[in-house]
């Protein structure tokens, strides 16, 4: 079990309101990702759920019971920190055993769970090493192992992969997703990485300045962003946003078109421009088109075979059905 | 050192300092060694003669010798115990954010800046004195008869005074160690269900092990040579109850004017100190790699 409900939860540090009152429900077994720009309160929200910070208002319910004033240990949640927070003077085995030792589990049970976790996380050969003798990825796995053996009702991850290199990050991302498929335990995952959010989440929570901008499945957010902020934040490269006469033409204050929904051609189209930078990745090509007279640059994504170069004159045509329209306050016009 | 040239250059540059240090050390040691084999008394300084091992035998068979060694051990261990335990406690207290933190920290450190004889005199005349000391006042307030500290518990009194002086040093070193403890580790342990006492035993203590080792090593070196505090308070008495090895040597040299005997005692003290140092390095030096 691991259903977590936040009711009107707020957090102030002195005079500064970091998180205005917000409501959020996380269902049992869900993989929820918190995303948002740096300093928007993702870590703070996670620490409130963990019990490492006291709430300034509101209630936190775990499986229906009020846990607002419960100590971190009593909440039955496990956390994986960005810095891993392993105990440096203990071997990997002792690190993983620590929460079970504190819970007073029998030695046999401890050994059984350590073996299982070590096997699942490929740590069997490193059990007698100290954390200082492991690579970053291995340390991360030890931290996850330490969380698993407690059999918590939910896992909390705070940017667990941000200290790893790109290749390792992809590998660990898959491992964590697999872990979730296998354990079916609730997971809350904080990241500012688009790709992690889109690929791992059942549900994404987009935060800005402590407020929830939108909650929904990755595809939901991609197809129907509720406002300009979410539209600009989700998707990579970013959505092209237009205002002024271009938007007025569609009866909106702002319109947005994703780079993959703009056709590019040398012959003709709706908007004329000149290629600034072109990036050829093989699978895709990205073109940054300038001098359109609409906005600074328009990003276009097309298939990898197109060979436009810097300085070429091109024509752009947006896919009319894929245009997102927003009103004066930035909200989506349905 | 990266290359062989830089290594030999470095050795060359270090040489003057090391040679100077060696001279500084070897000449007094050599002279002490020489005197320890002479019959040399300041009451009759013009008559000196070769004494062989007599000075050593005399010093060693002195009944005060064993007592002074025992006193030295009790003094060192007692002060270490108080300063390390107290230091950990105070460091943990002043590590927490409190009102007036800066002032509190300076106050805690300040005993270290008081010179040993001055500190000892303050303790003797203002705190432990049986008629005008603070302790006596407290005892009288509760209707008990005041304790004459230096007569009844001479060694304990000196341990208290010396511990008071060294507590700031221990606190300071242990506080810096404590401040370098990773906050996320403590939070992780909290989430792992470790109560405060387990966090202290499993995280804080191992983290401070190295600092505690440093405190023990440095303090032991200085505590073996405690002298001024004894001189201005008990003068080694009553009898030899508060005489440590250093003070016994002082007694031989300055009260009996026996330079030969004192030199022999000095050599014995050097040997004993080295034995202690070797044991210490073996026992706790492992933490320092
Ligand atoms: N202990 C604190 N005291 C005062 N302000 C704090 C404290 N902790 C965090 N804040 C403020 O709260 C805001 C949110 O911080 P938080 O760490 O939750 O951001 P974040 O979304 O995790 O950012 P990042 O992606 O950079 O990790 C920040 O503006 C930060 O300055
Ligand atoms: Mg953060």
Detailed description of the structure:
The complex is a heterodimer of chains A (334) and B (289). Chain A is of the alpha+beta class and 334 residues long. Chain A contains nine helices and 18 strands. In chain A, helix 2 packs across helix 3 and helix 2 runs parallel beside helix 4. Chain A is globular. Chain B is mainly alpha-helical. Chain B has one domain: MetI-like (MetI-like fold), CATH 1.10.3720.10. Chain B contains 13 helices and two strands. Chain B is flat and about 75 Å long. Classes of the chains: A alpha+beta (334), B mainly alpha (289). The interface between A and B is medium-sized, with 24 and 18 residues. Bound molecules: adenosine-5'-triphosphate and magnesium ion.
Spell out the blueprint of helices and strands:
The complex is a heterodimer of chains A (334) and B (289).
Chain A: E1 4-13, E2 16-26, E3 31-35, H1 42-50, E4 57-62, E5 65-66, E6 77-80, H2 92-103, H3 107-120, H4 136-148, E7 154-158, H5 166-183, E8 186-190, H6 194-200, E9 203-208, E10 211-216, H7 218-223, H8 228-233, E11 240-243, H9 245-248, E12 254-257, E13 262-265, E14 271-280, E15 284-290, E16 298-303, E17 313-318, E18 324-326
Parallel strand pairs in A: 3-8, 3-9, 6-7, 7-8
Antiparallel strand pairs in A: 1-2, 1-4, 4-5, 9-10, 11-12, 12-18, 13-17, 14-15, 14-17, 15-16
Chain B: H1 4-35, E1 38-39, E2 49-50, H2 54-61, H3 63-95, H4 101-109, H5 116-127, H6 134-141, H7 149-152, H8 154-179, H9 183-191, H10 196-223, H11 228-232, H12 245-255, H13 259-284
Antiparallel strand pairs in B: 1-2
Helix pairs in contact in B: 1-13, 2-13, 3-8, 3-10, 5-8, 8-10, 12-13
Bound molecules: adenosine-5'-triphosphate and magnesium ion (MG).
CATH topological fold name of the largest domain in chain A: Rossmann fold
Number of separate structural domains of chain B: 1
Question: N-to-C SSE series of chain A?
Answer: EEEHEEEHHHEHEHEEHHEHEEEEEEE
- Total number of distinct structural domains of chain A: 2
The protein's oligomeric status is heterodimer
Q: Measured on Cα atoms, how large is the radius of gyration of chain B?
A: 24 Å
Largest sheet of chain A: 6 strands, mixed
- SSE topology string of chain B: HEEHHHHHHHHHHHH
| CATH architectural type of chain B | Orthogonal Bundle
> Could you report the average pLDDT of chain B, rounded to the nearest whole number?
85
CATH architecture field of the largest domain in chain A: 3-Layer(aba) Sandwich
């Amino acid at each position: 079990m691991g259903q977590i409900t936040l009711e009107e939860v707020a957090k102030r540090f002195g005079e500064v309101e970091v998180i205005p009152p917000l409501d959020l429900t996380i269902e049992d077994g869900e993989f929820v990702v918190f995303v948002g720009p740096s300093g928007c309160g993702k870590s703070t929200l996670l620490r409130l759920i963990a019990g490492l910070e006291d709430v300034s208002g509101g209630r936190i319910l775990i499986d229906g019971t009020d846990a607002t004033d419960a100590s971190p240990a009593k909440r039955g949640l496990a956390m994986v920190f960005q810095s891993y927070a392993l105990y440096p003077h203990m071997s990997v085995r002792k690190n993983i055993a620590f929460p079970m030792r504190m819970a007073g589990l029998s030695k046999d049970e401890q050994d059984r769970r350590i073996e299982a976790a070590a096997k699942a996380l490929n740590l069997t050969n490193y059990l007698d090493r100290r954390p200082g003798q492991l690579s970053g990825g291995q340390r991360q796995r030890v931290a996850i192992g330490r969380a698993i053996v407690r059999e918590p009702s939910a896992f909390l991850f705070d940017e667990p992969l941000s200290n790893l290199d790109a290749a390792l990050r992809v590998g660990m991302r898959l491992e964590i997703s697999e872990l979730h498929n296998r354990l079916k335990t609730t997971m809350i995952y904080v990241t500012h990485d688009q790709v992690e959010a889109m690929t791992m989440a059942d549900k994404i929570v987009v935060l800005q300045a402590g407020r929830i901008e939108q909650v929904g499945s990755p595809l939901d957010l991609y197809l129907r962003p509720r406002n300009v902020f979410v539209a600009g934040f989700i998707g990579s490269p970013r959505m092209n946003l237009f205002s002024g006469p271009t938007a007025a033409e569609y009866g909106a204050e702002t319109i947005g078109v994703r780079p993959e929904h703009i056709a590019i051609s040398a012959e003709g189209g709706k908007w004329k421009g000149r290629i600034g930078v072109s990036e050829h990745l093989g699978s895709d090509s990205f073109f940054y088109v300038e001098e359109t007279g609409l906005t600074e640059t328009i990003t276009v994504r097309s298939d990898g075979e197109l060979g436009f170069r810097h300085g070429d004159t091109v024509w752009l045509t947006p896919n009319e059905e894929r245009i997102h329209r927003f009103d004066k306050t930035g909200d989506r016009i349905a | 050192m990266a290359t062989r040239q830089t290594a030999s250059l470095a050795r060359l540059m270090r040489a003057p300092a090391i040679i100077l240090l060696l001279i500084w050390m070897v000449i007094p040691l050599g002279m002490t060694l020489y005197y320890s084999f002479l019959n040399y008394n300041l009451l009759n300084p013009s008559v000196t003669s070769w004494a062989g091992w007599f000075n050593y035998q005399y010093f060693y068979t002195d009944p005060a010798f064993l007592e002074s060694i025992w006193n030295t051990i009790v003094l060192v261990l007692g002060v270490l115990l108080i300063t390390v335990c107290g230091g950990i406690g105070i460091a943990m207290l002043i590590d927490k954010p409190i009102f007036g933190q800066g002032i509190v920290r300076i106050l805690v450190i300040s005993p270290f800046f008081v010179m040993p004889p001055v500190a000892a005199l303050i303790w003797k005349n203002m705190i432990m004195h049986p008629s005008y000391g603070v302790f006596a006042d407290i005892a009288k307030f509760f209707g008990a008869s005041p304790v004459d500290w230096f007569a009844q518990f001479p060694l304990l009194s000196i341990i208290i005074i010396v511990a008071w002086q060294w507590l700031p040093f221990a606190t300071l070193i242990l506080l810096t160690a404590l401040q370098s403890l990773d906050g996320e580790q403590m939070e992780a342990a909290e989430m792992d269900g470790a109560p405060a006492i387990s966090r202290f035993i499993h995280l804080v203590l191992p983290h401070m092990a190295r600092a505690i080792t440093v405190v023990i090593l440095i303090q032991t070196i200085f505590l073996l040579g405690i002298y001024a505090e004894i001189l201005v308070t008990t003068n080694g008495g009553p009898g030899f109850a508060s005489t440590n090895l250093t003070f016994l040597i002082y007694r031989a040299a300055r009260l009996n004017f026996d330079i030969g005997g004192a030199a022999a005692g000095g050599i014995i003290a050097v040997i004993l100190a080295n034995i202690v140092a070797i044991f210490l390095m073996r026992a706790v030096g492992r933490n320092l790699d």
